[in-house]
Amino acid sequence: METKPNDIAPKVVIVGGSIAGLALGLMLQRIGVDFVILEAYKEIAPQAGASIAFFPMASLGCWEDIYAAAEKGTNKFTIRYSDMSPILTLDDLETKVTQRLGYGLVFLDRRLVIEVLYNHILDKSKVITSQKVVSVESRAEGVKVWTNDGSEFTGDMVLGCDGVHSTGRKEIAKLEGASQENRRSPPPLFGIAALLMEK
């Protein structure tokens, strides 16, 4: 159930129109907060990135579409050391996850996830492509964001959802007076591989 933006709610400028930015946009849409998503690419959902594992997205209102687009039958899941020896193997994963959570675990192309999330944004004019953020300024009345073509966007807050080489994060760090090199963050854990035959 979506609500309409109101005059009291803040306006949020979201930098990045991929999974995090679109999911955040859907959350804000559901609670009636105004937002704009600025995406550097010229299109939403380019053919880029690998497959991704997804748990339920029902709270965003798009689980059925995610499930319909997904590869079914994730029945074996193995976490491995760098030498490929198994740390943990779970058999019949889809059944176990469905029993515990009420929804299954699915794998699908990153592009398909982005398409589903984008399709659930009601007002497509809130997602603007070819808008690479180049500068962010904090002001008494909120924030101002400039993009590569000279466009300006204002809001009450800016949130960086533009990936690992985040311009948004760098600009926000400047506002906080901290360099990216001096900021600590946990190392990422990620990976996906084709099924390997057990020895």
From TrEMBL:
Family matches, as InterPro entries: FAD-bd (IPR002938), FAD/NAD-bd_sf (IPR036188), FAD_mOase_fung (IPR050562)
Entry's transmembrane regions: 12-32
GO MF term (any one): monooxygenase activity
Lineage: superkingdom: Eukaryota
Keyword Nuclease on entry: no
Cofactor(s), names only, from the UniProt record: FAD
Keywords: FAD, Flavoprotein, Membrane, Monooxygenase, Oxidoreductase, Transmembrane, Transmembrane helix
Domain FAD-binding: 11-177
Pfam families reported for this sequence: FAD_binding_3
Xref: PANTHER family: FAD-BINDING DOMAIN-CONTAINING PROTEIN-RELATED, FAD-DEPENDENT MONOOXYGENASE ASQG-RELATED
Family under the similarity heading: Belongs to the paxM FAD-dependent monooxygenase family.
Protein name per its UniProtKB record: FAD-dependent monooxygenase andE
Organism encoding this protein: Colletotrichum liriopes
